[in-house]
Design goal:
By secondary structure, the protein is α+β, with helices and mostly antiparallel strands. Helix content is about 35%, strand content about 30%. It contains 14 helices and 26 strands. It has helices at about 10-20, 40-60, 70-75, 80-85, 125-135, 180-200, 245-250, 275-285, 310-330, 345-355, 365-370, 390-415, 425-435, 445-455, and strands spanning about 25-30, 35, 60-65, 70, 90-95, 95-100, 105-110, 115-120, 145-155, 165-175, 205-210, 220-230, 235-245, 255, 265, 265-275, 300-305, 335, 360-365, 370-375, 385, 420, 435-440, 460-465, 470-475, 480-490. A hairpin with a 5-residue loop joins strand 14 and strand 15 (about 265). The longest helix is centred in the C-terminal third of the chain and has 26 residues, at about 390-415. About 40% of the residues are buried. It binds one RNA strand through helix 1, strand 13, strand 16, helix 10 and helix 11.
Length: about 500
RNA sequence: CGGGGCGUAGCGUAGUCCGGUAUCGCGCCUGGUUUGGGACCAGGAGGUCGUCAGUUCAAAUCUGGCCGCCCCGACCA
């Protein structure tokens, strides 16, 4: 394994791929388009899950689990939904294998053909709404606020670790409501949860907005999203929350008796974030030395490396370290003490930098004499010598600073790469020369949006919520427009 | 599905044009010296060269088929 990482400047895409592999987050599996998430990467995902799961529960949701398989007929019930997903579905057609008669190995047993094929879920609206029919009779059964943690499969033509894999992990919330207004409030509430998570936990600033009709989820009335900017100026959709109207209730005949005793179709939402967030995390903060993790999501926040000669000295150092470790842990800081004798300090320094551990503490004989430690922060690569006394308070403070600094840095970067364009020429020049978000007027038609996409590869990422209204003309058609929207090339 | 590249030890590779029994680095194992930014010395283990067939005295190398993966596009979270 080479020690030097490809630089972001040199080849951003290659830098990302190498980083994911070298930081031990994930690797390609034997199955095309599918990844193995390695323990270190999975530990980050578990942190994300824990934080999100708590946020969901704090907003009144409960977890449940629905099947991996969906009968094919369910898909045809909601017309636009099937249209959106049909091209990327994995299908189970048989349920048994047998030994080939010519002894050449195992083959599909053609006599074990399913009467109805099963689709491996690309998303669970259909199986869930089919189930909800049996759960909802009255307004008293509503709202139904359910989330599931699951894996889904979308047979994408081109995949990239975390950003787009054939199978991925996610959570999908599916809620049912008595009124449209209540469902819209839910949709917006969960968008806020996602935005808070992105900003406060992942240290990634996001723009909340709604998707245009072209970009809307298949089967939704309105799709809300959070959009983040990666260091190369490309946009990444980090989470979506959909107002589904009564589309799925009608498709699956889910009715309830309202207070007036009248039958009405149930109103729905669905919302999800996936392991794609891991990709967002990597691409937002990391540098040419490796991963940079926000303290709130790092598998461990502090690593302590002893520098010693001989076992006796190690024992002396360990005594001090274990006390510090205990004090830090009492403050809720996660600490790894790496006293392995099999690797040298320099090796460990490089390794933990590559893995993005927020704070490294080194302690040697010199420090024992002086009552000090060397503290290095990953985000700025700065080192300072601190007194051991009350180290837990200093480190706790430092971790907060790092968390905040990462967010501010990402925000500054985004602002520096956000532009206004008033003509199509200017728009194209910006995308070509200095990729980023381009705020531009658009006439509101799918036709103009489509043409711009074909000619520049840029799409409308979203129409920001509470967008400033201003008169202007569409950069493409010259027709009047009332607001600027966010254009960018996207992952 | 179009374009490009690749498949040789755990990883990364040389060798392929011009056929002669596989190179180098990292990693791994043993012993020793080391340890404040990816240590050094000595010794050692590890390979049906993606796969199947063909040509040949002889194939990693030539010919044909097949399989797989990666990258760039179209599609998408």
């Amino acid at each position: 394994m080479s020690k030097e990482l490809t630089t972001r400047e040199g080849n951003y895409s290659e830098w990302y791929n190498e980083l994911v592999a070298k930081a031990d987050l994930a690797e390609h599996s034997a199955v095309k388009g599918c990844m193995v998430i390695k323990p270190y990467g999975y530990a980050i995902w578990e942190k994300m899950q824990a934080a999100l799961d708590k946020m969901f529960k704090d907003t009144g949701h409960v977890n449940a689990y629905f099947p991996l398989f969906i009968p094919k007929s369910f898909f045809s019930k909601e017309a636009s939904h099937v249209q959106g997903f049909a091209k990327e579905c994995a299908v189970v057609t048989h349920y048994r294998l047998k030994n080939a008669e010519d002894g050449s190995g195992i083959v599909v047993d053609e006599t074990a053909k399913l009467d109805e094929e099963l689709i491996i879920r690309p998303t669970s609206e259909t199986i869930i709404w089919n189930t909800y029919r049996g759960w909802i009779q009255s307004y008293r059964d509503l709202p139904l606020l359910i989330n599931q943690w699951a894996n889904v499969v979308r047979w994408e033509m081109r995949t990239r670790l975390f950003l787009r894999t054939t199978e991925f992990l996610w959570q999908e919330g599916h809620t049912a409501h008595a009124t449209a207004a209540e469902a819209v409030i839910e949709t917006e509430k969960m968008l806020d949860v996602y935005a808070d998570f992105a900003e406060q936990w992942m240290a990634i600033p996001v723009i909340k907005g709604i998707k245009t009709a072209n970009e809307r989820f298949a089967g939704a009335i309105e799709t809300y999203c959070i959009e983040a900017m990666m260091q190369d100026g490309k946009a990444l959709q980090a989470g979506t929350s959909h107002f589904l109207g009564q589309n799925f209730a009608k498709a699956f005949d889910v009715k309830f008796a309202n207070k007036e005793g009248k039958q009405d179709f149930v109103w729905a939402t669905s919302w999800g974030v996936s392991t794609r967030l891991m990709g967002a995390l990597v691409m937002s903060h990391s540098d040419d030395k490796g991963l940079v993790l926000p303290p709130k999501l790092a598998p461990f926040q502090v690593v302590i490396v002893p520098i010693y000669k001989g076992e006796e000295q190690l024992a002396q150092i360990s005594e001090v370290v274990l006390k510090m470790k205990k004090a830090m842990e009492a403050k809720g800081i996660s600490v790894k003490y790496d006293d392995r004798d099999t690797q040298r300090p320099g090796w460990k320094f490089a390794e933990y930098e590559l893995k993005g551990v927020p704070v490294r503490i080194a302690i040697g004989a010199r420090d024992l004499e002086n009552g000090t430690v060397e503290v290095a922060r990953r985000d700025t690569l700065e080192k300072e010598t601190l007194q051991q006394a009350d180290i837990e308070t200093k480190i706790a403070h430092l971790l907060e600073q790092i968390q905040d600094n990462l967010y501010q840095k990402a925000r500054t970067m985004r602002e520096a790469k956000t532009y206004k364009a008033d003509t199509y020429e200017e728009f194209k020049r910006i995308l070509e020369e200095t990729p980023g978000f381009v705020m531009a007027h658009w006439d509101g038609t799918p036709e103009s949006e489509q043409k711009i996409k074909e000619e520049t590869k840029a799409t409308i990422r979203c129409i920001p919520l509470n967008n400033k209204q201003e008169a202007g003309i569409c950069i493409y058609s010259g027709k009047p427009s009332t607001q600027r929207v966010v254009f960018a090339k996207a992952y």
